Amino acid sequence: MTARISDLDVHLGYWLRFVSNHVSQAFARKLQGRGVTVAEWVTMRRLFGERGVAPSRLAYRIGMSRGAISKLADRLIDKELVVRRADTQDGRAQTLALTARGRVLVPELAALADDNDAEFFRPLTAQERRVLRQLLERLVEQNELKVVPID
Length: 151
What we know:
Helices cover 60% and strands 7% of the residues.
């Protein structure tokens, strides 16, 4: 006798992943047209409005390793969207900050993120979107999720 195996579509995780993949992939395509990856966008958004952030602090805020932040910073520096500077308080330490070009680009990319959300979640009413967000936030809190998904 064989044990009954549940179908994929009975799992909430399956549906979350299904929707998340489509939302994320559409956003990644939009960003690609602007020469930026999702990880780079998340990094730039976290830097927006800051004068300079230590890479270790940025890594913590995003939930990434210092090595991953270093690689992202290098890519963004090569694209002239981020600059690495000596910390004004401690000349041995470094900070990351957006360049003028990066500061101009962030609001444009944020508009793409807003449009992407609007496209995918348009079938839901404003109340349904609020409830969905509250439920997801509760799951994040209760499961103590810290790492920001960027891929």
